[in-house]
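User: Quick sanity check before I run a bigger batch. Here is a single chain. Can you write out its predicted 3D structure?
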Amino acid sequence: MFGLLERRFVVGLAGMAALSAAAALAQQVAAPPIPDPTHIPFTLAKDIKWEGDPLYGQQQAKLFGDPAKPGLYGILIKWLPGHYSRPHFHNTDRYVLVISGTWWVSSSDVYDLKTLYPMPAGTFVTDIANTVHWDGARDEPAVLELVGMGPVITTPAEKR
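Assistant: Done. Predicted structure follows.
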């Protein structure tokens, strides 16, 4: 009847036919329903509204609340490569998650690029109220999520 090679060939053809049929069936299945936004509000990444001029080197997107007003807020900050803040401090604690890229930070009150330390994606940082720092992005964009209580006041603190 069939030899071993022929049987393997037939089994292989049957397997490919089954995979093709499964792929065709998967294409026929309707997309899942969109979750009810009254139960699970969401914003896709492509729909996040970034504000600010990229030439300045930083953009922000409000997720909830407002850092300028009393209450809980959450924002995204996008640092563009080669841009940094100057030494400063905030009046409230802020909690930072590095979402993508590398965020470079310094706790020096002197603006000196040699004092920057890398915080890679996935790093969680607490920005303690009234402590000096400065930050930015070196070679790649860095996206951060910041959560805190407003209103936030930023005070320059650079020593020259």
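The chain has two domains: 1-30, 45-156.

User: Great, the batch can go ahead then.
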